[in-house]
Amino acid sequence: MAVETKEYRAEARFQRVSPQKARLVLDLIKGRGVQEALETAAFTKKRIAPVIHKLLTSAVDNAKYVAGEQGIDLDVDSLYVKSALANDGPRMKRIRPAPMGRAYRYQRRLAHIVVSVAERGASKDLVTKAEEPVARAKPVKKAKPAAAPKKKASKKA
Fold it and tell me: Is 24 helix (H, G, I), strand (E, B) or coil?
């Protein structure tokens, strides 16, 4: 009996940042409320943080627009960041000069960033984690009596 929640998303493609660096900021906002996530993105000192802030604002605006078009009652204060992904984009191959007339190749990575928000309303009643079964107490085995250590025979000459 899963309650289906509407998910609203926004994406920024071909961003000039490696996906690994973008994930550092995305991990900070994942699972948080939208207002808290916007504040976190605004005060994070990474080059991609303003882009993620703009993207998150766009996802909230998309949620407002789609809810208005479909006649859905949407509480913006109950929105949270459901998922935030940074996928690989195409790589730009570049050449760097090297000693003795050689050239070293390197790749400039691009990222496709996707942020989706959802309403936290009815899903509070659902169980999100399965409880671990309580382990039964195992019967304690009786320890065998320890044998006395053997003494080494000493040679007297």
Answer: helix
Which one, of 40, 1, 10, lies nearest residue 118 by Cα? Answer: 10
3-state secondary structure (DSSP) of residue 131? coil
Report the predicted TM-score, pTM, of the whole model to 2 decimal places.
0.72
Q: Answer yes or no: are the C-beta atoms of 114 and 15 closer than 8 Å.
A: no
pLDDT tens profile 86-134: 999 999 999 999 999 999 999 999 999 999 999 987 544 444 455 666 6
The neighbour count for residue 19, using CB atoms within 10 Å, is 18
Return the structure tokens found at 32. Answer: 């948080």
> Based on the structure, what is the number of domains in the chain?
1
Percent helix, percent strand, percent coil in the chain, to nearest 5: 30, 25, 40
Give the residue numbers spanning the domain of 87: 12-124
Number of Cβ atoms within 10 Å of the Cβ of 139: 6
Q: Would you say 8 and 59 are in contact if contact means Cβ atoms under 8 Å apart?
A: yes
Per DSSP, 100 falls in state G
Question: Domain with 59 in it: what CATH number?
Answer: 3.90.470.10
